[in-house]
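Action item from last week, closing it out:
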Amino acid sequence: MNYRTFVKGYFFSGGRYDMFDKEDNENIRRFNAFSGMKHRNKPYDLNSAADLTDALLLAVAAYRDYWYYQITLDNLVESYDESLEYYDTASWINLGLAPEKVDDLASDGVSALDEALRTFESITERAKEKCILIITAILSTPPATQEAVLGRAYKIEPGEMDEKIESLLDSLNETEYHYPMEENRDSLLALMKVHWAKY
C-alpha cells in the first residue's frame, strides 16, 4: 500500500501515516517525557494490523467527539435564539430588522456562537476526512488484515469506497454518542456488518 497524499494536516506517504511533522513529533516526545504520558508521535504503519487498529480507534473517536461538540453548539445557537426572543425581545427583533440597534452583548453572543459553530463544522469535516482515509486504508489491505482490524473482511470496489464510508459515518451519527473511544469504534464496526453484509 502506498499513499502519497496530504489531507488537511495529515500525511499519508510510503505506507505510513504521519499525524504530525518533525517539530511537533519532537514536542510531543518531550511532553511525554516530562509528564509521563504516552501520547503517540511515531507514524502509523499502514501495513500493520495493530497500527491500523489504533489509527481507526482514534480516528472514529475524534470524529464522534468533534461531531458531538458541533451538534451541542448547534443546539446552543438555537436555544440562545429562543432565549433572546423571550427575554430580550427588542434585541431579537432588531437582529433582523435593525442590527445597529441591537445591544452589544446580545449581538456578541450571536456572533460568538455562530463563529464557534462554523469552526467546529470545519473541525468535524476534517476529522471525517481523516476517518474516511483510515477506513479506506484498512479496506485496501488483504482479507486477513481486515479481519484483524474490523472483525471481518469486506470487498468494496475502490470507486465506491468514499461514498459507502461517508454513508456509514452518516448512519453512525444517528446512533447514540459515547464518550469512551472503544464504544464509538464498536458502534461503527457493528454498523459495517449491517450496512456491508453483502460485501
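Closing note: The chain has two domains: 1-44, 48-195.
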